[in-house]
């Protein structure tokens, strides 16, 4: 197997053209990018001489432990996908790290990132997990990343609970396809706490088969621009929001009617009319007008008016 050392770095470096002007220590001090992907590396030696190293490519190797990177304090990008890493460790000192790639390893718990206050992107998709196990999230790490992490890739990790991600209020992109999310209400609750979410991919999860799945998430995630790799039309979103509001208003009105909080005008009229011994003809309600004509019509009009009054007062 191969160990990443300063001698190996010198062997693969392109400093041969400038050997006369740059010694190995000088070269290591100036180097900013190192690409040692697919070199069959299984261990990392002391890289403290690479003080200005900012980008390190170590993907497609055989590394089992993250070690000897603490001195690379200027590191901003670390690519370690497709190795044999089981634990995230020894990188809390990389306080300038903005992008971390750990996909395709054997990590069971997302932890050990408490000090990475500048981390913007975390890719930990496709872990080789034991049968039936799921990728877990350490609450301390989630709270530590709450104010910085904007892109999270957790595709294909057998995850069935999204509430652990709720603290990540700065998320703009969530890639969580091919997991085991089933509860649409939990997803609605958590997504409503992410005011900057623009892209989300939940394709391949059981929740996608639920009725109105897409409509519900488009309605609750008002900043979402792309869901499951399909763009969201703003006119469609507004229609769904208006339709949901109208439906909720109708439901509230129906409930108030059922509980007696609202009565229709017709019902009020019926309930306020005293019980009568007989039905009063419609013509009798014209008594006021006929009373005005009583003088010209004589006692007959007065008699009709009296009949109207009696019919109302009689119980």
Describe the model.
With 315 residues, this protein is of the alpha/beta class. Helices cover 30% and strands 12% of the residues. Strands 2-4-5-6-8-10-11-12-13-14 form a ten-stranded mixed sheet, with no helix packed on it. Strands 1-3 form a two-stranded parallel sheet. Strands 7-9 form a two-stranded parallel ribbon. Helix 4 packs parallel to helix 5 and helix 5 packs across helix 6. The radius of gyration is 37 Å and the shape is elongated. The C terminus is likely disordered.
Helical residue percent?
Answer: 25-40%
Low-confidence spans: 275-292, 298-315
Average of the residue pLDDT scores? 83
Strand content: 5-15%
Order of helices and strands: EHHEEEEEEEEHEEHEHEEHHHHH
Pairing-aware structural class of the strands and helices? alpha/beta
Q: Name the shape in a single word.
A: elongated
Question: How would you sum up the major sheet?
Answer: 10 strands, mixed
Strand order of the largest sheet: 2-4-5-6-8-10-11-12-13-14
The first-to-last residue Cα distance is: 106 Å
Question: Number of helical runs?
Answer: 10
Tell me the number of strands: 14
**Radius of gyration of CA atoms, rounded to a whole number:** 37 Å
Task: Offer a quick outline of the entry.
The protein has 315 residues and is an alpha/beta fold.
Secondary structure blueprint with pairings:
Blueprint: E1 2-4, H1 6-12, H2 24-30, E2 33-35, E3 41-44, E4 55-57, E5 77-79, E6 99-101, E7 109-110, E8 121-123, E9 136-137, H3 139-144, E10 151-153, E11 173-175, H4 184-191, E12 199-201, H5 213-220, E13 226-227, E14 230-231, H6 234-258, H7 265-272, H8 287-292, H9 294-297, H10 299-313
Parallel strand pairs: 1-3, 2-4, 4-5, 5-6, 6-8, 7-9, 8-10, 10-11, 11-12, 12-13
Antiparallel strand pairs: 13-14
């Amino acid at each position: 197997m191969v160990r990443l050392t300063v001698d190996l770095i010198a062997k693969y470096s392109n400093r041969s053209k400038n050997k006369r002007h740059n010694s190995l220590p000088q070269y290591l001090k100036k180097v900013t990018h190192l690409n040692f992907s697919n070199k069959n590396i299984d261990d990392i030696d002391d890289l403290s001489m690479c003080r200005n190293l900012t980008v390190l490519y170590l993907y497609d190797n055989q590394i089992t432990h993250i070690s000897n990177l603490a001195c690379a304090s200027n590191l901003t990008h670390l690519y370690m996908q497709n190795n044999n890493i089981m634990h995230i460790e020894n990188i809390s000192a990389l306080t300038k790290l903005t992008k971390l790639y750990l996909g395709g390893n054997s990590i069971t718990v997302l932890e050990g990132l408490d000090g990475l206050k500048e981390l913007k992107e975390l890719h930990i998709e496709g872990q080789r997990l034991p049968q039936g196990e799921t990728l877990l999230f350490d609450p301390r790490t989630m709270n530590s990343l709450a104010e910085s992490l904007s892109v999270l890739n957790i595709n294909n990790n057998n995850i069935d609970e999204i509430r652990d991600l709720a603290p990540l209020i700065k998320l703009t992109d969530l890639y969580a396809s091919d997991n085991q999310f089933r509860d649409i209400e939990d997803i609605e609750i958590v997504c409503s706490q992410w005011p900057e979410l623009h892209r989300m991919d939940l394709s391949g999860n059981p929740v996608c088969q639920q009725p109105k799945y897409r409509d519900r998430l488009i309605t609750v995630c008002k900043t979402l621009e792309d869901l499951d790799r399909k763009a969201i039309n703003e006119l469609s979103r507004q229609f769904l929001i208006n339709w949901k509001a109208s439906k909720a208003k109708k439901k509230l009105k129906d409930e108030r009617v059922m509980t007696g909080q609202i009565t229709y005008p017709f019902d009020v009229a019926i309930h306020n009319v005293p019980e009568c011994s007989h039905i009063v003809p419609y013509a009798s309600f014209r008594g006021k007008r006929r009373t005005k004509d009583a003088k010209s019509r004589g006692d007959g009009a007065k008699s009709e008016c009296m009949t109207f009054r009696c019919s109302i007062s009689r119980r």
